Every structure is written in structure tokens, then in C-alpha cells.
């Protein structure tokens, strides 16, 4: 069974290889939060489908969307027949894929379409087209994959690219890290607004989040810059000024969880 990842074998090249080999079967593509499948019969692409939640795209626009994936596991199941046909096959398919691939290469969306879109905390002035304003009003709190599974995939992707480049929209990972219960440790010296955690814990958070993050400390429920510090396992280091401001003392137990 043929399987791998689109990071090593881009989707248009993969489909082209199946066509050239005259294969029959189903190509499954499974990035997080999205399901894609492409059926080939005798080397002809006859059906494509993508789904995110209850949203579904089929045919050419499904191909357009799949061409934008930069990494995702795939598996080819030989001799699996399509439930129906949405594509006519022929040379139109590789031409469509090449056009879509070129369009995606001009865009700067996160490779991880599981990222959630949100409005930035600091709003700035920006002139947007009515279409961009409509998109902006509809995407907050949704994953990129969910937003892109819609008619006009490439046009929608271009609008998201523009909104992200202008800074009127952010794409951030969903943080799924359990809170840590730490004991307060005074850190003597100047400064304020910085929390210190053990470097091993910081490294584990950084690997899990893969994005810049701050630290929410409860009590009192404040968000602070966080930095690694060696040899303080189970401790949360706070500067003297912050200890006074937050009314915390050595040995107090707090809950710490990273936020993006």
C-alpha cells in the first residue's frame, strides 16, 4: 500500500504519479481537522471530496483545496471505486492542479490549518473591501480548515492571506496543555511582568504549542511574559515587584497555563 506525507510528496505530484501509472483506487489525505479523498480509475481522476465537520466540497474545488496542503499523511487504497463521479478526468486535472498549486505558492497561510482565526487584541485602522469585511465577520473563532471548505476556495484563501498580512486577523494554535500547579519562588532583582518556569517545562510547552506564548497565573488571574530558568522544577519565579502587586508570597500555590 502506498502511503507517506505530502511534505515529501506534494499533492499535485502525487496525483500525477497515480495518473501516469494508470492506477485505480482511492487516495486518502488526512490532515488535522480535514478529510480528503481522490478517486482514480485507469489513471483518470473521476472524483474528489473534502470535508471539515459538516462542510463538504466536491469536484474541482476539492482539488483546489487539497493542492494547498503542505503537509498531511496520505494513503492509497487500490481498486476502491468511487461512489459517484464529479470530474471528467483527462489533462484538465493536472492543468487545474498546476494552476491551484501556483496560486497557493503565492499565499502565506499557516501550514497547520488547525490554527484558529481571531481578531488581534490591538486593533488598527485598515481599509477593507466589502467582501473582505464579510469574510472577517464570519471567520473569528474558526479553524482555517473549516473556513476554507467553502465555494470559491482560492478566492477565499487570497482574502485570508490579505487579512493576515494586514494584521487585522491572526492565526493561532489551539493550546491543549494541562495547567501546572506550581509554588511561588521569589526572584530578587529589578524588573516586573515576567514569570519564570523551569527550563524543562518551558521547553515542553514550546514543543507542544510551536508558537509564541504568555503565561496565565491564577490566582490572581493575570497574564505575564514567561521565560525559562534552570533548576526551578515545580516553582514559578516572580520578581519582587510582581509579588507585591499580585499579593503573593513564597510557597503560595498557583495554577499556570500558557496562552497564545
Overview of the molecule:
- The structure is a single chain.
- The protein has 260 residues and is of the alpha+beta class.
- The chain folds into 3 domains: 2-105, no CATH class; 116-172, no CATH class; 180-259, Barwin-like endoglucanases, CATH 2.40.40.20.
- 30% of the residues lie in helices and 30% in strands.
- The protein contains 8 helices and 14 strands.
- The mean pLDDT is 94.
Concise summary:
This protein folds into three domains: 2-105, no CATH class; 116-172, no CATH class; 180-259, Barwin-like endoglucanases, CATH 2.40.40.20. It contains eight helices and 14 strands.
Structural topology:
Layout: E1 2-5, H1 11-20, E2 25-29, E3 35-41, E4 44-52, E5 55-58, H2 60-66, E6 73-78, H3 92-105, E7 116-118, H4 130-139, H5 144-148, H6 153-166, E8 170-172, E9 180-187, E10 194-198, H7 199-209, E11 214-218, E12 222-229, E13 235-239, H8 240-246, E14 253-259
Parallel strand pairs: 9-13, 10-12
Antiparallel strand pairs: 1-6, 2-3, 2-6, 3-4, 4-5, 7-8, 9-14, 10-13, 11-12, 11-14
Helix pairs in contact: 2-3, 4-6
How many separate structural domains? 3
Low-confidence stretches: none
Q: What's the assembly state of these chains? A: single chain
Rg, rounded, reads 24 Å
- The secondary-structure class comes to alpha+beta
Span between N and C termini?
40 Å
Main pleated sheet: 6 strands, antiparallel
What portion of residues is helical?
25-40%
What's the mean pLDDT score? 94
Number of discrete helical segments: 8
- Counting DSSP E segments of at least 2 residues, the number of strands comes to 14
